[in-house]
């Protein structure tokens, strides 16, 4: 049962100095390996995502700026099933192949390090303390199956 649940998740990597981050940099800079991924800025609102074979060139454009590199994550592409439907977007009804996306938002505030299973400590060697950890809402949207963007506010979804 646990494996079935895990199969519903997708891989998300930082682009930093951790082993996971260095693995992500190798994936993102290889034109073939990058095909199954999207590079996303660490912000909300849709837009500015870089897909597949365009990722290596984009990263070359960042040069050696590690701060800019760390402002992105590399995420395995999610390929949801499509269906034929109609959406009302930009003042008109549009029909065609669409996909649904569910975004769940959460809040987690902690002090003095973090409290993950890896046993990380803060600078003083103390365990982290979670102050708040709760689900903060959700967004369910529908968009065209060929759209690489998804922001409702940006005009890509409904």
Quick overview:
By secondary structure, the protein is α+β, with helices and mostly antiparallel strands. It has helices at 2-6, 19-29, 54-62, 66-70, and strands at 12-14, 37-41, 50-51, 72-76, 83-89, 92-111, 129-144. The strands form two sheets. The chain has a four-stranded antiparallel beta sheet.
Describe this entry's structure for a reader.
The protein is of the alpha+beta class and 158 residues long. 19% of the residues lie in helices and 37% in strands. The chain is built from four helices and seven strands. It has helices at 2-6, 19-29, 54-62, 66-70, and strands at residues 12-14, 37-41, 50-51, 72-76, 83-89, 92-111, 129-144. Strands 1-4-2-3 form a four-stranded antiparallel beta sheet. The longest helix has 11 residues, at 19-29. The two termini are 33 Å apart. The model has no long low-confidence stretch (mean pLDDT 83).
Helix-strand sequence: HEHEEHHEEEE
Helical proportion, percent range: 10-25%
Query: If strands are numbered along the chain, what order do they take across the biggest sheet?
Result: 1-4-2-3
- Please give the radius of gyration in angstroms: 18 Å
Total count of helical runs of at least 4 residues: 4
What about the largest sheet?
Answer: 4 strands, antiparallel
**What does the overall shape look like?**
globular
Residue stretches low in confidence (pLDDT < 50, at least 5 long) are none
The count of DSSP E runs of length 2 or more, i.e. the number of strands, is 7
Give the N-to-C terminal Cα separation.
33 Å
Helix/strand class: alpha+beta
Mean pLDDT: 83
- Percent of residues in β-strands: 35-45%
């Amino acid at each position: 049962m646990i494996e079935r649940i895990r199969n519903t998740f997708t891989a998300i990597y930082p682009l930093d100095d951790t082993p996971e981050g260095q693995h992500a940099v190798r994936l993102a800079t290889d034109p073939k390996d990058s095909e199954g991924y999207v590079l996303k800025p660490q912000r909300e609102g849709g837009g500015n995502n870089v897909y597949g074979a365009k990722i290596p060139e984009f990263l070359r454009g960042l040069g050696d700026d590690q701060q800019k590199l760390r402002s992105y994550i590399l995420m395995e592409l999610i390929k949801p099933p499509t269906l034929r439907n109609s959406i009302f977007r930009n003042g008109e009804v549009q029909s065609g192949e669409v996909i649904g996306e569910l975004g769940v938002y959460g809040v987690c505030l902690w002090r003095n390090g973090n409290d993950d299973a890896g046993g990380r400590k803060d600078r003083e060697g103390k365990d982290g303390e979670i102050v708040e950890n709760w689900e903060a809402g959700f967004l369910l949207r529908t968009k065209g199956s060929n759209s690489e963007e998804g922001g409702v506010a940006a005009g890509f979804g409904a």
